[in-house]
Amino acid sequence: MAKRFTISMLMIHGGTPRDRQAREELGAALPDGADVGQPDELGVFDVHVDAEDLEGALHTVWNAVAASGTDDHIVFLEHSELPEHWRPRSRPAAAGSR
Asked: What is the pTM assigned to this prediction?
């Protein structure tokens, strides 16, 4: 039986207009019943999906990121297999960046 999982995500350019658009595009690529929360002041937001297990939930969100082409703007906040993988990209965008 499917359970509800929460996957935390990060908009990596400080919530720029393109990051906000990417978040909306991600939401549109997720399956019916999924929910994309509002970002906080750091650009962190939660995606809620139904899946059989955590791996299935991560796979669902990853597929939506890939399908929406938003991987240049949104990353997984934390993944047990890749701790703090987002940290090198979490600094503010340089002047003239996307």
From this structure: 0.77
